[in-house]
Amino acid sequence: MADIRKVVLAYSGGLDTSVAVRWIAETxxxxxxxxxxxxxxxxxxxxxxxxxxxxGASKAVVRDMRLPFVxxxxxxxxxxxxxxxxxxxxxxxxxxxxxxxxLMEAADAEQADAISHGATGKGNDQVRFELAAYHFRPGIxxxxxxxxxxxxxxxxxxxxxxxxxxxxxxxxxKPYSVDRNLLHTSYEGGVLEDPWREPDPAMxxxxxxxxxxxxEPRVIELxxxxxxxxxxxxxxxxxxxxxxxxxxxxxxxxxxxxxxxxNRFVGMxxxxxYETPGGSxxxxxxxxxxSLTLDREVLRIRQDLMPRYASLVYNGxxxxxxxxxxxxxxxxxxxxxTGTARLRLYKGAITVLGRKAPRSLYRPDIVTFEEDTVYDxxxxxxxxxxxxxxxxxxxxxxx
Length: 399
Fold this sequence. Notes:
Elements: E1 6-10, H1 15-28, E2 31-38, H2 45-54, E3 59-64, H3 66-79, H4 91-110, E4 114-116, H5 125-136, E5 141-143, H6 154-163, E6 177-180, E7 185-188, E8 218-225, E9 228-232, E10 235-236, H7 239-252, E11 257-263, E12 269-275, H8 277-293, H9 296-314, H10 321-334, E13 339-346, E14 349-356, H11 364-367, H12 379-398
Parallel strand pairs: 1-2, 1-4, 2-3, 4-5
Antiparallel strand pairs: 6-7, 7-12, 8-9, 8-13, 9-10, 11-12, 13-14
């Protein structure tokens, strides 16, 4: 790739990308433009911009992508009920294609020859960034420093930063990686690579230790329209504001911590610790409303497809036609999910207290144990016999 003149780097201001700025400029003798996407990581991106320029970037661009992140990525995944391996709400997996979209738009604006990222050759993010990049520009050149440079680990990167006076937060004593956005904060690597070791309580950023959460529970009501949350306790909010407020409320009560060993797309198992306070509440509330509003078989189809959808997102196939096809089905199903869920948040737990919907399929006059005039219980006898027919035939043959 000797013909590269300008590279746009997805820049976070962390250890890997700070080293990458200097390394790319020196290795490829090219101009490096840093792109910082604000997806709600609650960091001083103007400071990151100054840092990028200080370590060798010719230009640094900061773009606020919080609204498209929540509206176009988080909300669709929540409508799908997406959980990877039954627990992970896909915070990083959803942020990467969003950041990649902004990155590729910056590459076009800068007329760049290539893009770059700080993802390692062992992780999922390299796949997510690059699949998205090829979606937007099939012929784009990609520089992945972790697959090229001589450094064998983050400790050597830390030594490099000391040699070149590059300011970083990671240290050799606490080199675990932190990724934060409006949906979650994730922690992995370093001291967390021992799956037997309990995370340091001081590590968490979004949630209280449930043991130190308020002794009084918080009851909230979440309103949904066509599968998306639109109001908290009767107050309508935009997607960004709603998720941010719910993060604060749920985080205060210790809701949303997950510690799991997951299967990476590249073939290895890894340990990840996640905080997803608002997302956990949204997932529970939507499930409560859809229990009233979705037809049984429609709900089962959506539930059957959910693991496939979640794996596609986790593995980086956000822009793939199969994910888009599943999304169309999910969004059509979600048209019926309109209603309100009432939940109690208490010391890390979410309890559904009630749910209601203007077009509820739940019929008290049918389900009641008291006398009714709409259900003939004698009909159940033929229903049972017909469903038992195949089992009765097999049993007779066995005997």
